[in-house]
Amino acid sequence: MNDDYQITVEAEAFYQQQYSNADAGQYVFAYRITLRNTGRHPAKLLSRHWIITDANNDVQEVRGMGVVGEHPHLQPGESYSYTSGATLRTPYGSMQGSYQMQADDGTRFEAPIAEFHLIAPRTLH
C-alpha cells in the first residue's frame, strides 16, 4: 500500500435494544466510524461499500455516495467520526467494506474497513 494515500478506519458497534424486537427478528445496531488521514495528501471521501452479514449468512451489500449525507475532506493527520446504524434479522453478524477516496491531486484509492461484529448482549457465551 502506498503510504502517501492512506486512511485508517476504526469501528465500534452498539446494540440498540430500545429499537430492537427479537420476536419480530429485528436487531438494531448503531456503529461509530472514525476515519483518520494517515497519509501524506489531503483526501475526500466519495462513496462507501458495506457488506453486512447476519448469523444465517444472509448478506446485504450497501453502496452509496458519502456518509450520513457528507463527503468529509481530511487533511493529513485529521480525523472525522460519524454514527450510523444497521438492522439484522439475527442477534449477531458482522460488517466490513471500504470507502472510495480521492486525494486532492486526483489519485483515487480505497480505505478498507476491517470486519467488525454486531452482537446483541447475552447471545454468545
Automatic annotation (TrEMBL):
Residues 1-125 form the ApaG domain. InterPro entries: ApaG-like, ApaG_domain, ApaG_sf, Uncharacterised_ApaG. PANTHER family: OS05G0170800 PROTEIN. This is Protein ApaG.
